[in-house]
Amino acid sequence: MRLRSGSDPDHLLIEALSLGFRRRHVRDKVAGILRCKVKRMTFRGVNLTCMRRWLRAVRLAVAGLAALIAAGNHAAARSGWGERSVEAIELRTARHPIMAIISLRNQRITVYDAEGWILRAPVSSGQKGRETPAGIYSVIQKVEHHYSNLYDDAYMPHMQRITWSGIALHGGVLPGHPASHGCVRMPFDFAARLFDATTMGIRVIVAPKDIAPVELTHPALLQPNSDPGALADARSAEAQEFARNAVQARNAAQTAVREAMRAMVPMRTAQNLKLRAEAQFAHAEATLGSAISAETKQQAERDKAQALAKMAEVQVQWDAAQADLQPKLDAATSAHEAAAAAETALAAAAEAARQAARELEPISVLISRKTQRLYIRQAFKPIFDSPIIIKDPDRPIGTHVFTAIERSSGNTNLRWSVVSLDSGRPPTAIVEPYGRTRATSVGNAEPIPTDPDSARAALDRIVIPQEAMDRIAGIVPRSSLIVTDETMSSETGKATDFVVLLSGEPQGGIKNRRRTPTSAFRYARPRLPYWRSPFGKSFFSW
Questions:
Q1: What is the spatial distance between Cα 233 and Cα 411, in angstroms, rounded to a whole number?
Q2: For the chain, which has fewer Cβ within 10 Å, the N-terminal or C-terminal residue?
Q3: Does the global pTM surpass 0.85?
């Protein structure tokens, strides 16, 4: 280990740590703590004896950490276990993911495409008192290199946000039990892989137990009346045609204006000559009126006659130039009006194309037994809500997430899958937070398939109004229908899809979020990539 000379003892110790530790998470954590300490302590006004005592204590702590590293670090071992426990489907080619299900009991995330699961990995969800709330979410923001604005600037790589209050999926250390402040930590490599595979709006379900979607059919599960993709293509083609017409009209208007400008040159020349002749005529008349001698009067008469002749000649030129200019001015005016009309038509066609493109976005429908209403959102915006009839409204209906998946080959109809959520406890069981239960005992168990009969029974009780049916006639893959006893969470809002929380499950991860109004202004200082610890203030608690 080679150290630079000329540094004070504190900085030598920090450099020794950075060079000596080979376990990055411990190295960065210790180096970050010591660096902050050294920045706060200077030799001016500080007792040197106290400083030496502090340095001795630090060296003893470092020695203890080194021994811990040599013996094997529990959290690091767990993190390595997390990386080795990542699974990917190998029997078929994975397609685009449409859903991620996180099991709080099993501490595992499973990612599904239209045919089944494609990726699995262990996770670490919220610790006791800060539990990740079970419920229905979607990815509303993706940031590859994110730093927490709630928990000491903690590094959260490949962050995929699911609530604006701060719950997200991101890479992190897995100690083998729930340990976060409400986020869902995933193995670092897996988080990067999932970040690259997902798109905004992908459904994320946090379930008390590990469940798997099953395919089902039911008359209430809508099918598109038309192909929205074909309509979007047609609207796009029309917009392109209108754009070409607008360009042509704009070019024609510019050409007509140039022609009119050229035609104005002879007229302006004739106008200037006419003004000059009129001035000469006026001068001749003035001279004639004041002349005394006969010779002067004769000269004035000649000048006056020449001026009159010039005025007549110039008038003929001016009339000819005016006759040539007027049609070109009319043509320029017509071309300008045609260009304006083409621009208006282009704007209308472009808006129609954008609307058709928006209709390709998945639609989310929420039916709440608690409010007896139906809500529709698309592209993270509310578009419709209305009362709805639920038969036997006082009887629980459960929470079910129906997802439209890609059409079968040669079939124009959508397929539907369902995931049903429940607490996994008997109705009289006491709700307790998910604690430090190890995930290894159940982490390898296969997910439990959803019971399709309960989902069909829920759909049997719903009567969707025709107006709502018309609003969702252009349903596309990845659209969803949520039927639940709950109401939408207050987390549902601007730039979100529906957020639904299971009321019978712990929600400490949302209720106990630390919110700082000035957090948006915390990153004015430059980051220090080497010294910054990726694990926040406390190694086992962020």
A1: 20
A2: N
A3: no
Strand locations in 334-471 (E): 363-368, 373-378, 381-387, 389-390, 399-405, 415-421, 448-449, 462-463
Rounded to whole angstroms, the Cα distance separating 158 from 189 reads: 10
Task: Provide the residue type at 180 as one letter.
Answer: S
Could you state, in chain order, the average pLDDT of each consecutive group of 10 residues for the chain (542 residues)?
43 44 47 51 50 59 50 45 70 86 96 93 94 96 90 87 94 94 95 95 95 93 77 87 93 91 86 85 82 80 84 84 87 92 93 84 94 94 93 95 80 86 55 48 74 95 88 84 96 95 87 49 37 40 38
CA count, 13 A, side-chain hemisphere, 484: 26
Q: How many helices (H) and strands (E) does the chain have?
A: 10, 22
CA distance 40 to 443: 45
- For residue 368 the two structure tokens come to 């709440």
Residues 6+ away with beta carbon under 8 Å from 295: none
Q: What distance in Å separates the CA atoms of residue 420 and residue 206, rounded to the nearest whole number?
A: 11
The DSSP letter of residue 237 is H
User: Rounded CA gap, 530 and 35, in Å?
Assistant: 11
Strand positions, DSSP E, 187-341: 203-207, 211-212, 214-216
